[in-house]
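user: can you give me the structure for this one chain? tokens are fine.
assistant: on it. calling the predictor now.
[tool input]
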Amino acid sequence: MFLAEILGPDLLVVVIVVAVLVFGGSAIPKLARNLGSAKAEFEKGVKEAKGAAAAPATDASETKPDEPAS
């Protein structure tokens, strides 16, 4: 767990206890679920953006204009 390596196990326990006291025991799973769904939506958006960037553009501004007939 990356957070535990930065903060240390004792500080991590204090943060968890404070979160439970502030939000209540029943709200913590809801917050975690919402955070997970937000992460999934973000990753989905990034994947769609990468797909759109990789697709060739067929925009009218990028096409060459027709040459005038002589």
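assistant: here you go. The first helix runs from residue 2 to 7. Residues 25-50 form one domain.
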